[in-house]
């Protein structure tokens, strides 16, 4: 596609429910990142996929968080048993050449846990 | 991993003023980018600049890779320049790491 697309744009969920967030990267981009941004804060790295290499999961805050990516296509970020502290904007970015080129961001998914 | 620090954390400008934002990074980098996050939260690419100098309208950026810093210059600032400016860098074999941002408010 023309840009990175994320869905849904907004998600309100009840505490304890599971949620899935989706990211469609730019076609041909081999690398994909997920970041979390709490209100008024900076970008917190979550996970990084590069081609067929093992993902860098070092930023996932707990085992309630997981992410998948099939090949160089769509990625889903799953949060199980959501907590109020999970409320944030979740941002996805993709790049070509696995970090040696420009990263582009989607518009984000605003998650609110009530 | 690489450390990225931005300064100042906050900047208040009168419309028409010039300013310089700084980004320091702790290691040699393959990638250095500047982003503007607008009030709606969208991250807009400003510059991809692992080294050298680039200009785009009223904005310009310089990265001195050997001294591990990058500067973003805003000239003749406008209210639409308000928002948060982030730099991000990636060293070989590492993920893209963001600085804490500089929050800019341009007053009319």
Fold and architecture overview:
The complex is a heterodimer of chains A (114) and B (108). Chain A has 114 residues and is mostly beta strands. Chain A is built from no helices and 10 strands. In chain A, the strands form 2 sheets. In chain A, strands 2, 4, 5, 8, 9 and 10 form a 6-stranded mixed beta sheet that branches. Chain A has a 4-stranded antiparallel beta sheet with strand order 1-3-7-6, with no helix packed on it. Chain A is globular and about 40 Å long. With 108 residues, chain B is an all-beta fold. Chain B is globular.
Number of helices of chain B: 0
Spatial separation of the terminal alpha carbons of chain B: 41 Å
Report, as a whole number of angstroms, the end-to-end distance of chain A: 33 Å
List the helices and strands of chain A in order: EEEEEEEEEE
Principal-axes geometry of chain B comes out as globular
What integer is the average pLDDT of chain A? 93
- The stretches of 5 or more residues of chain B where confidence is low (pLDDT under 50) are none
Helix content of chain B: under 10%
Q: How large, in whole angstroms, is the Cα Rg of chain A?
A: 13 Å
**Fraction in beta strands of chain B:** over 45%
Class per helix and strand makeup of chain A: mainly beta
Q: Name the chain pair whose interface involves the most residues.
A: A-B, 23 and 20 residues
Number of helices of chain A: 0
Instruction: Give the ordered list of helices and strands of chain B.
Output: EEEEEEEEEEE
Radius of gyration of chain B, in Å, reads: 13 Å
Defining traits:
heterodimer; A: 114 residues; mainly beta; six-stranded mixed β-sheet; four-stranded antiparallel β-sheet; 10 strands; 46% strand; B: 108 residues; 11 strands
């Amino acid at each position: 596609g023309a840009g990175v697309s994320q869905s849904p744009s907004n998600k309100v969920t009840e505490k304890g429910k599971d949620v899935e967030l989706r990211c469609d990267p730019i076609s041909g981009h081999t690398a994909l990142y997920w970041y979390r941004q709490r209100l008024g804060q900076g970008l917190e790295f979550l996970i990084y996929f590069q081609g067929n290499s093992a993902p860098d999961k070092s930023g996932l805050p707990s085992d309630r968080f997981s992410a998948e990516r099939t090949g160089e296509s769509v990625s889903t970020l799953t949060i199980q048993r959501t907590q109020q502290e999970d409320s944030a904007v979740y941002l996805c970015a993709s790049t070509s050449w696995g970090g040696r080129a420009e990263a582009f961001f989607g518009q984000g998914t605003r998650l609110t846990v009530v | 991993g690489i450390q990225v620090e931005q300064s100042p954390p906050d900047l208040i400008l009168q419309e028409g003023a010039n300013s310089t934002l700084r980004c320091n990074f702790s290691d040699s980098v393959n990638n250095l980018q500047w982003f503007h996050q607008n009030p709606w939260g969208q991250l807009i690419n400003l510059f991809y600049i692992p080294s050298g100098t680039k200009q785009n309208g009223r904005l310009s950026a310089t990265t001195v890779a050997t001294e591990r810093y990058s500067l973003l210059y805003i000239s003749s600032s406008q209210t639409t320049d308000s928002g948060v400016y982030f730099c991000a860098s990636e060293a070989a074999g590492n993920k893209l790491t963001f600085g804490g941002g500089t929050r800019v408010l341009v007053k009319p």
